[in-house]
Amino acid sequence: MLTMFHYSFMQNAIFVSVFISILCPCIGIFLVLRRYSMIGDALSHASLAGITIGLMLNQNPVLGAFLFTSVCGALIEFLRSYFQKYTDLILTIVLSLSVGTAITIISSGKLHASADSFMFGSILTVTRFDMIMVLILSAVSVLTLIFLYHQMIYIAYDEEAARIAGVKVRLINYVFSVLVASAIAVSIRIVGVLVLSSMIALPVATAMQLGKGFRFTLIFSIVFSVIDIMLGLFLSYYLNVAPGGFTALISVAVLVLVLLAKKLQTSVGAACSQ
């Protein structure tokens, strides 16, 4: 098993995976609390358009994904004032724009490289430049989250009350959109576009089953995220399958195990109390 660590591409993949497993649940917990997990899914699919634009222009696709997803995140926030009661319409608009752009570019034959590895995830495609970008984007995102921590908690639980209290809700929402874009951009190399949203939402959903407060839920979300991504990375290497899909399966399996353990604990507690 230790032989995998001798390969530079595995070292790069593990480096990126560590940052993914920390950053995604930090972003995901706020999306889940605000019932915006589908926005994360829409933006993860939007990143495919950024990837194809980057490949077409001979630029780094991760940077392209970050820039285009940031624009789409800002667009979602902008459209919220026009479709306040119809969030699903906003997601449809953004998905139509991004998926339409991606399909048009891919079908044009102007791509200088294949986008398949970004759709399914591949540990072979992580480069040194990607590692530097991941480090920078992750560091900026985590520092921003720390700086806006209390305001974002306030907004997550009651946006209207936060606005009345003087919190700059609209500005912070735009900043948060960029943070989501950052989390997506750093994750696409390993996880892939198609199942990226599972890394944002499922560790948080698993941690919420423990019934702890916000801080403990965040900590356990990171713990479950590390377990999911590392197991997915190592096992996919030996099974010779795409890490993204297998990591998503492990995330679901861990969630099911926690739900079963919770159910068993409740049953045992009820039996003991009788």
Structure in words:
- The chain crosses the membrane at residues 12-33, 62-83, 89-111, 132-154, 174-202, 214-235, 241-261.
- This is ABC-3 protein.
- It is a multi-pass membrane protein.
- The protein has helices at residues 8-33, 37-56, 61-79, 87-108, 116-120, 128-147, 149-157, 159-164, 169-187, 196-208, 214-239, 243-273.
- By secondary structure, it is mostly helical.
- It is globular and about 70 Å long.
Question: How would the blueprint of this fold be written?
Answer:
Elements lengths: L7 H26 L3 H20 L4 H19 L7 H22 L7 H5 L7 H20 L1 H9 L1 H6 L4 H19 L8 H13 L5 H26 L3 H31 L1
Please state roughly what percent of the residues sit in beta strands, choosing from under 5%, 5-15%, 15-25%, 25-35%, 35-45% or over 45%: under 5%
CATH architecture: Orthogonal Bundle
Radius of gyration: 19 Å
Find the CATH superfamily: ABC transporter involved in vitamin B12 uptake, BtuC
- The number of helices is 12
CATH topology: ABC transporter involved in vitamin B12 uptake, BtuC
Number of strands: 0
- Order of helix and strand elements from N to C terminus: HHHHHHHHHHHH
Give the oligomeric state of the chains in this entry, treating copies of one chain as homo and distinct chains as hetero: single chain
Separation of termini?
Answer: 49 Å
Please mark out the parts with pLDDT under 50 across 5 or more consecutive residues, or reply none.
none
Give me the secondary-structure category. mainly alpha
Subcellular location: Cell membrane; Membrane
Keywords: Membrane, Transmembrane, Transmembrane helix, Transport
Transmembrane segments: 12-33, 62-83, 89-111, 132-154, 174-202, 214-235, 241-261
Organism: Syntrophobotulus glycolicus (strain DSM 8271 / FlGlyR)
